[in-house]
Amino acid sequence: MVNSPILAPSILAGNHANLAASLREAENVEGIDWVHLDIMDGHFVPNLTFGPKTVADLRSMSKLYFDTHLMLTHPHKYVEAFAKAGSDNITIHVEPDYPIRDTLRKIKDLGCQCGICLNPDTPVEALEPFLEEVDLILCMTVQPGFGGQTFREDVLTKFATLNQWRKEGSFKWRIEVDGGVNLETAAQCKSVGVETFVAGTAFFKAENQQAFTQNIIAAK
Q1: pLDDT tens readout for residues 19-53
Q2: What are phi and psi of 143, to 5 degrees?
Q3: pLDDT at 17 over 70
Q4: Which of 17, 38, 78, 142 could make a disulfide contact with 179, Cβ separation 3.0–4.6 Å?
Q5: Of 126, 133, 137, 134, nearest to 97 (Cα)?
Q6: How many structural domains compose the chain?
Q7: What is the pLDDT of residues 52-79, one digit of tens each?
Q8: d(CA 36, CA 198)
Q9: In a domain? residue 201
Q10: Dist. CA 186–CA 113, nearest whole Å
């Protein structure tokens, strides 16, 4: 495996009336070093979440790695705000019409790592122009917008392709999965090269979050 396994709880599945408590809940679990922040604009995806001010306020109370996922029609207009708010990685989507390569470079110039993401119905080949630009590649295994959806197994072939490209190109970027992640689907993803797992509903509803985390990281 190129990179060590990581579980990044998505606070989208936490308590929106007290996101700070959800952040602390994740931070108190041994083995959690990342948290996933879903930013939705109500246009690119049919939901609204929160903005840079919320990220900045959460940043002031946590040392976790902030994995910020911009599900926006115009992410290039907002990467500076989210970088200044304290994001460690900013992931943008390949589907909207905007200057993707320039935006990835801007994220780097702002001192963050950068990622590129595609939705379940987008061909994996759409990512090929950006393989040398990124630190992370995220594939959605549900249609983004709302948590609790069913994992789409057809995306596993995309992970396998990415893993092959990573080996052939000696790339070091992480392969990340988001959507329907549980113990069973994490093992399926890990078998095709995924080592970074975003879990929302399954993490926050787990009876034992410590055991859930350890089992995801150790999944085979």
Answers
A1: 999 999 999 999 999 999 999 999 999 889 999 99
A2: -75, 120
A3: yes
A4: 142
A5: 126
A6: 1
A7: 999 999 999 999 999 999 999 999 999 9
A8: 7
A9: yes
A10: 24
Answer yes or no: is 200 within a domain: yes
Taken in order 193, 111, 75, 44, the sign of the CA dihedral is positive
**179 contacts 152 by C-beta, under 8 angstroms:** yes
Asked if 38 is an active-site residue, the reply is yes
Q: What is the CATH number of the domain that holds 132?
A: 3.20.20.70
pLDDT tens column, 146-194: 666 789 999 999 999 999 999 999 999 999 999 999 999 999 999 999 9
- Asked about 57 being catalytic, the answer comes back as no
CA distance 51 to 193: 32
Q: What does the alpha-carbon distance between residue 198 and residue 177 come to, in Å, rounded to a whole number?
A: 6
Q: Note whether residue 1 is domain-resident.
A: no
| Residue 203 scores a pLDDT above 70 | yes
Catalytic option among 33, 38, 97, 135: 38
| Sheet architecture: strand order including 113-118 | 6-9, 196-199, 174-178, 136-140, 113-118, 89-93, 65-71, 34-40
Cα 171 to Cα 90, 133, 185, distances in angstroms: 19, 10, 24
Question: Which residue range forms the structural domain that includes residue 210?
Answer: 6-217
Decide: residue 98, CB within 10 A, 0-12 exposed, 13-18 middle, 19+ buried.
Answer: middle
